[in-house]
Design goal:
eight-stranded mixed beta sheet, N-(1-d-carboxylethyl)-l-norvaline Dehydrogenase, domain 2, Rossmann fold, 292 residues, 8 strands, single chain, 11 helices, alpha/beta
Length: 292
């Protein structure tokens, strides 16, 4: 599968942004990762190298592929460097004002042909695109966590997204080796429409003392065949991110099950964010990227 997109920009070097960058670099594309914080970029690059090396050791990548992919990965704290990109994928906080500010700056920086994409899982693509300056060249591309292991991308056009933009983005997703599916611009798209309330239900089981996190995860994995339990997944997502997801989803739908459980806020206050702090619902001996 070929694509006219050869240089990919990722805005945000957190868990999602780092994973998407791995997918792009692994697919043979030049990959620029922007973050305001150099320490976030350093951490993402270190985790990326470890993940790629482990993939090579396990035979999932041919010899030399890890070093080649890492050579295509470049970090920057200068947003102006995104001018070199054919597409910029945003993977920052689930906050509409933050996204509008970012895309407003990118619109002034990037050439006309550059596509904009958002990895949002809850906020309307049309609303985000409305602050981008190029709503016709804007598309939703929701990668699944962890992006470097999960193949699915939910592709969502906004009301103003052109057919050419959606076609280019779809071809790009396939060129990455991913599996795109088309969704409408609705809260949560397909996955998070189910997943956010489901994960909150698991949190409330812990709150109510119904079962321990390990037992809840074991029950879900054993009975339903899930590769990860909901509380393991939440530890990977991070409690801070879950709070933002809940607030965005609940604000749009007003569904009770989407409301952020009080336990999440207490865990954030205690800095039990999940794997990235070494402790969430479970305890971790390291904070390496999932799969590394």
């Amino acid at each position: 599968m070929t694509t006219d997109i050869q240089t990919v920009g990722i805005a945000g070097a957190g868990t999602m942004g780092a994973g998407i960058a791995i997918v792009a670099a692994r697919a043979g594309l030049r990959t620029l990762v922007f973050d305001k914080r150099q320490d976030a970029l350093d951490r993402a690059r270190e985790q990326t190298g470890a993940f790629l090396k482990k993939s090579e050791q396990r035979g999932k990548l041919p010899p030399g592929a890890a070093d080649a992919a890492l050579a295509r990965w470049q970090g920057t704290t200068q947003l102006a460097d995104m001018a070199a990109c054919d597409i910029v994928i945003e993977a920052v906080f689930e906050d509409l004002a933050v996204k509008h500010d970012l895309f407003g700056q990118l619109h002034a920086i990037c050439p006309e042909h550059t596509l904009f994409a958002s990895n949002t899982s809850t906020i309307s693509i049309t609303e985000i695109a409305g602050g981008s300056g190029r709503a016709d060249r804007f598309v939703g591309m929701h990668f699944c966590l962890p992006a470097q292991l999960m193949k699915l991308i939910e592709m969502s056009p906004g009301l103003s997204t052109s057919e050419d933009t959606f076609r280019r983005a779809w071809t790009f997703a396939e060129a990455l080796g991913q599996k795109p599916v088309a969704t409408q611009d609705t809260p949560g798209f397909i996955l998070n429409y189910f997943l956010i309330p489901f994960n909150n239900d698991a949190i409330r089981l812990v709150e109510q003392g119904v079962a321990e996190p390990a037992d809840i995860d074991t029950a879900i994995k054993t009975a339903l065949g899930y590769p990860m339990g909901p509380l393991e997944l939440l530890d990977l997502v991070g409690m801070d991110t879950q709070k933002l997801l809940c607030e965005a989803m609940h604000g749009l739908t007003h569904e009770a099950r989407a409301a952020c459980p009080p336990l999440v806020r207490r865990m954030i206050a205690a800095e039990r964010l999940g794997k990235k702090t070494g402790r969430g619902f479970h305890t971790y001996g390291d904070t390496k990227m999932f799969g590394a």
